Every structure is written in structure tokens, then in C-alpha cells.
Amino acid sequence: VTDFWDTAGQERFQSMHASYYHQAHACIMVFDVQRKVTYKNLNSWYRELREFRPEIPCIVVANKIDADMKVTQKSFNFARKFSLPFYFVSAADGTNVVKLFNDAIRLALAYKQHSGDFMDQVLQELE
Asked: What are phi and psi of 22, to 5 degrees?
């Protein structure tokens, strides 16, 4: 079973409750290529993610490439800085969306099967 959660605007609260990260096995961090502030916010979201889930795989996604395909020629350093997979997608027209989710599921399952994450062990004991 795979669950996907969307923050649905939670970024306006500057952080999310720790329970939001409970049993997460992967994270997809999406920014809007038309709104620079969403890219700038990746640092704080990534820091918070690592506070609660230090080892889970994380993918960085540039969304809304359908608005201007030239954006795919740009270099976004955040993913490279942290050695994270990076995708250009369009949720509007579906470009790379299936590939993104297939890869995220694959990474999450691999992580779950081979996790040495202390929090995973604690959560497993509590179940």
C-alpha cells in the first residue's frame, strides 16, 4: 500500500507538525518554476524533512514546465547540492509525472526494505 500526501498550501505555516512525517519512506519536494519563492523555500523544507526523517529518499521536482519549456535548459543547484534526483514535470499536461511517481515508489520501497533508519525501527516496535 502506498499513500501520497500533499501539503496543499501548508507552506504558509512555515513548518508542519512532526506527525506529518510519521512513517514517510520518501519525499517529493515540488517547486513552481513560475514562483521563485517556492524554489527558495526548498532549503527550509529540506532541513525540516531531515530533522524528522534523516535518511529517506528525497526527489526534487520543477513543476509547470508547460508554461515555458525553456526552463528545462536552466540549472537548478539545490538538487545537485544535496545529491538528490531531479525532475522537470508538468502536472497540467502529464510530462514526466508517471516516471516521477514510479521512481518515487521504487525508492520508497527500496528504502523500506533496507532501512537502517532508527525512527523506522522505533515505529516498527510501536506497531
From this structure: -55, 125
In a domain, 40, yes or no: yes
84-109 average pLDDT score: 97
Q: Domain range for residue 111?
A: 18-126
Beta bridge partners of 30: 61
Greatest alpha-carbon pair distance for the chain in Å reads 49
Contacts of 78 (CB under 8 A, 6+ apart): 39, 42, 43, 46, 60, 84
What DSSP string runs through the chain? -------TTGGGGSS--GGGGTT---EEEEEETT-HHHHHTHHHHHHHHHHH-SSS-EEEEEE-GGG-GGGGGS--HHHHHTT--EEE--TTT-TTHHHHHHHHHHHHHHHHHH---HHHHHHHHH-
The overall pTM is greater than 0.90: no
